[in-house]
Amino acid sequence: MTAMYLPALLYFVVTMALIGVLVVLSGLIGERKATRQKMLPYECGMDPIGTLEIHFPVKFYVLAMIFIIFDIETVFLYPWGVIFRDLGWFGFVEMLIFTAVLLIGLVYLYRKGALEWD
Fold this sequence. Notes:
Methane Monooxygenase Hydroxylase, Chain G, domain 1, mainly alpha
């Protein structure tokens, strides 16, 4: 049984070793000269206006994470739509349950006020 996972383990070890070598080499070979121009934030080629400390409200990050979660979950609808006829009623009921869970989560977030942008 473990022989089946040996290629995956070998791939993982080689990948981690390569990542380690590349990180060490970039640290040794790469130049680090911090100039005033390099430390300025890039704003479409224009000189920055104001301070560098811009604070976004936490709701922005929560809303972004909610969007990502629902976006990724709805991607599962596409493969289901492709093989809908092959799955029959079982696949239809499973997708109804999946969609109901998403809808319940969305209603919960709406009631908690997580989708409001003030």
